[in-house]
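Forum: Protein Structure Q&A
Topic: Joint prediction for protein chains with partners

I've read a bunch of threads here and the consensus seems to be that you should model interacting components together rather than docking separate models afterwards. I'd like to see that in practice. Below is the full input, 226 residues plus whatever partners are listed. Could one of the regulars post the assembled result?
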Amino acid sequence: GAVVSQHPSWVICKSGTSVKIECRSLDFQATTMFWYRQFPKKSLMLMATSNEGSKATYEQGVEKDKFLINHASLTLSTLTVTSAHPEDSSFYICSALRQGGNSPLHFGNGTRLTVT
Amino acid sequence: DAKTTQPPSMDCAEGRAANLPCNHSTISGNEYVYWYRQIHSQGPQYIIHGLKNNETNEMASLIITEDRKSSTLILPHATLRDTAVYYCIVIPNAGNMLTFGGGTRLMVKP
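Posted by a regular:
Agreed with the consensus. Here's the joint model:
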């Protein structure tokens, strides 16, 4: 159990366009999802915490208007990179917390975004 | 989160045990030790966690010292597919967001 699906696994887009990344918990309900970003050969950095039905909490230095997060249901959170620029190219990874349980976080397989 | 210290890299021969150390000398009494690994271009994968007792599952064993200031993740028979970055993380309880340090890059060699 505890499968987290992330889609797409990779995407290439042009500068100025927006890209939406989906994160789904397939076999459990997730009240909280976390979005991370990872640059090559670096560790994961937390971008924001997403709670179902409320506004996301962003880490310092992460622009909330650029990285729009929506967590409209207990099984789906989306991250939209708006007006993407080449410096937004990165590996984006989500993780989901099972509702009510004291269980480990489980991660999606990431989305590699390349902005040309 | 309490800070952890891990060696940046380690090598291990295929079929041998891989012992990955982690120091967490400032760990608090209610903090768990979690281990994740990340294979190249994939999301982190949960391995094991513990509070103070040693733990074992189908993937690995976790040995926590009595003073809880350090731990060792043991992969009993490493395979080439175990090549990954291994992260040791301490958090107050399950379900907290995870803060990733540099981890240990384990290279399993034939």
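The radius of gyration of chain B is 13 Å.
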